């Protein structure tokens, strides 16, 4: 067993680190930094993933690695989850999200940074175990997505100032 402290290891990739941390704090609320990406292709279709934990469609989301910049983390999550290379177009929102209680009882307060991104490659596919499907959707043909994700999609099409 690795005896280094949890803070020195990448807890997002190491389930043992998450287990070690939760063993210390139980299900108590934990504040975590996260990212959300609204990824558009050349025809402005939106990239969505169907989550393996809920079966629901969603934008690409994820937890930042220790010391990782949000923009870098968003691009990493897009590639890890969908095999798509992307670039960040602009910041959409920085927000402290309401308490989320996970199915196992863990409580999380996400501090989320949302970006509008543009796909730079083709061939979207399920690229990890967090998703069971990946697809491109026209804005008028979106499946049911979380309300916040729909708001971020709408915001991504709003005219930016500057």
Verbal overview:
This protein is an alpha+beta fold and about 160 residues long. Helices cover about 20% and strands about 35% of the residues. Strands 1, 4, 5, 6 and 7 form a 5-stranded mixed beta sheet that branches. A 3-stranded antiparallel beta sheet has the order 3-2-8, with no helix packed on it. The chain is globular, with a radius of gyration of 16 Å. Mean pLDDT is about 90; it is low at about 1-10.
Which band does the percent of strand residues land in? 25-35%
- Classify the fold: give the CATH topology: Nucleoside Triphosphate Pyrophosphohydrolase
How many strand elements?
A: 8
Summarize the main sheet.
Answer: 5 strands, mixed
Unreliable residue stretches = 1-9
Number of domains: 1
